[in-house]
């Protein structure tokens, strides 16, 4: 017997969200269970609620497919970014930018340089963990030799790493945020300048002040850093031609060309450089695009890959479509949950409740920030802090006639960069472990990581940098 569909009550609407949060807190936060399975279990509970209010299984499947259809263009971009990173790595494009970024290091202002260099490397690689775990570790060695503040240096490294991660079109979280919110990738990055640039400028001023209090004499570069530089030079040949793949992407972004073809064209050029200039085989180029680059692929006279230090290996072992699988699985699992509660009408009830307490744009931004930070505290997951609040608030922003890029920006300001400040999050544990400084010790110095959401709230209440739905700027 078919049941007539009805609007869920407030309890029915909020119960799936509460169950999901409890499962993630207990299952993932305490017992370390895979969040994908926990989200699937949450979807089962959501399905029971959907059946209770009269939604058929076929309708639930339609809701899930609608979420997948909406996200598919961005998922394809995510996969292509894996190809891009792998091809840029084997062509020497990323290694060259890393090499000259490290050459910029001046130990006189180690804290400031720690922020700038990790930001550059993270931006060109799209990974905060990779930049902090490689050049970040080397910079900590320089700071130790200088007698500089280790918490300040570690905080600057974390802030720089997440600045680059946040602003890089190669970053998984930077792709995920506009995917969930419904905005364009490059519009999203451009819109983040309103909050990220002021936060970065304030950070630089603070790090400059710290630098003036360091000893005036320069200290030599650390042995690890010198080894990294020499090893990269042995592995690759440097030439301005290596910047062609970067120029293609920049041109595509500035001229607003379609993202996916731009990325593929850039990857093809990178592959050509890898073949005819760096001397890699076609097999290695294809493998790098699919599985990621590996040091063992380098076959140059006198080069022994087994003698490469771990710091270099970790830095260049990146890219490939396979590297994006984890993000896609979490996203798909979350979209299943979102598709079911959307068809059940739960999101509409939640949206109505949110509209009652968010009279002004600033109230909405503040609510988004609070929800995202809460999700970060609860789950410690960069992906879930974006996906869950993004799905909850997307319709509210549309109802308020606000452009989706306001939501995607706020998700990054209060999610992506806040997670490494949480001691029990995976990012917090990782950063504290590799840098040798407790999370709460480097937290005050990771200025950009908490200034972003403060500025976002200020902009929300002043209206500065807030784009309307019909505003193309």
Describe this structure in words.
This protein is mainly alpha-helical and 473 residues long. The protein has a domain at 73-324. The chain is 73% helix and 0% strand. It contains 22 helices and no strands. The chain has helices spanning 10-30, 35-52, 57-91, 93-103, 110-125, 128-146, 150-167, 172-181, 185-212, 223-235, 244-254, 259-276, 282-291, 310-316, 325-343, 346-357, 361-379, 382-399, 404-416, 426-435, 439-442, 447-462. The chain starts with 9 loop residues before the first helix and ends in an 11-residue tail after the last helix.
Order of helices and strands: HHHHHHHHHHHHHHHHHHHHHH
Mean pLDDT: 85
- Termini distance? 52 Å
Number of strands: 0
Helicity range: over 70%
Mass-distribution shape: globular
Q: Note the main sheet.
A: none
Question: How many helices in DSSP terms?
Answer: 22
> How large a portion of the residues is in β-strands, by DSSP E?
under 5%
Poorly predicted residue ranges: 216-220
Radius of gyration: 23 Å
How does the helix and strand content classify structurally?
Answer: mainly alpha
């Amino acid at each position: 017997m078919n049941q007539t569909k009805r609007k869920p009550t407030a309890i029915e609407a909020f119960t799936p969200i509460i169950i999901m949060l409890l499962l993630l807190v207990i299952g993932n936060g305490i017992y370390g269970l895979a969040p994908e399975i926990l989200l699937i279990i949450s979807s089962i509970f959501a399905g029971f609620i959907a059946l209770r209010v009269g939604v058929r299984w076929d309708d639930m499947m339609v809701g899930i497919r609608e979420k997948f259809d909406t996200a598919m263009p961005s998922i394809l971009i995510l996969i292509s970014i894996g190809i891009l990173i792998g091809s840029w790595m084997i062509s020497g494009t990323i290694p060259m930018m890393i090499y000259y970024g490290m050459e910029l290091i001046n130990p006189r202002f180690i804290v400031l340089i720690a922020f700038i260099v990790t930001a550059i490397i993270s931006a060109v690689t799209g990974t905060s963990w990779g930049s902090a775990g490689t050049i970040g570790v080397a910079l900590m060695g320089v700071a130790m030799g200088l007698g500089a503040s280790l918490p300040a240096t570690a905080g600057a490294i974390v802030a720089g790493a997440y600045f680059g991660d946040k602003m890089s079109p190669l970053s998984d979280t930077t792709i995920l945020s506009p995917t969930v919110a419904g905005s364009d990738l490059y519009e999203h990055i451009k819109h983040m300048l309103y909050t990220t640039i002021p936060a970065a400028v304030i950070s630089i001023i603070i790090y400059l002040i710290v630098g003036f209090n360091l000893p005036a004499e320069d200290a030599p570069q650390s042995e690890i850093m010198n080894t990294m530089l020499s090893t990269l030079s042995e592995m690759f040949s440097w030439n301005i031609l290596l910047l062609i793949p970067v120029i293609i992407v920049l041109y595509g972004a500035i001229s607003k060309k379609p993202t996916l073809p731009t990325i593929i064209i850039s990857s093809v050029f990178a592959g050509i450089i890898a073949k005819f200039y760096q001397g890699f085989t076609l097999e290695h180029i294809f493998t790098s695009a699919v599985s990621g680059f590996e040091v063992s692929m380098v076959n140059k006279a006198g080069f022994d890959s087994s003698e490469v230090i771990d710091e270099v290996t970790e830095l260049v072992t990146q890219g490939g479509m396979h590297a994006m699988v984890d993000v896609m699985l979490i996203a798909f699992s979350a979209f299943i949950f979102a598709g079911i509660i959307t068809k059940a009408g739960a999101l509409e009830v939640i949206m109505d409740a949110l509209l009652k307490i968010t009279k002004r744009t600033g109230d909405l931004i503040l609510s988004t920030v609070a929800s995202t930070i809460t999700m970060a505290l609860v789950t410690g997951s960069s992906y879930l802090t974006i996906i869950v609040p993004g799905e909850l608030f997307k319709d509210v922003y549309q109802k308020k006639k606000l452009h989706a890029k306001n939501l995607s920006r706020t998700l990054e300001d209060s999610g992506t960069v806040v997670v490494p400040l949480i001691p029990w999050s995976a990012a917090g544990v990782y950063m504290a472990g590799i840098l040798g400084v407790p999370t709460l010790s480097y937290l005050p110095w990771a200025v950009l990581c908490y200034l972003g959401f403060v500025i976002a709230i200020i902009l929300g209440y002043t209206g500065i940098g807030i784009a309307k739905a019909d505003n193309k700027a």
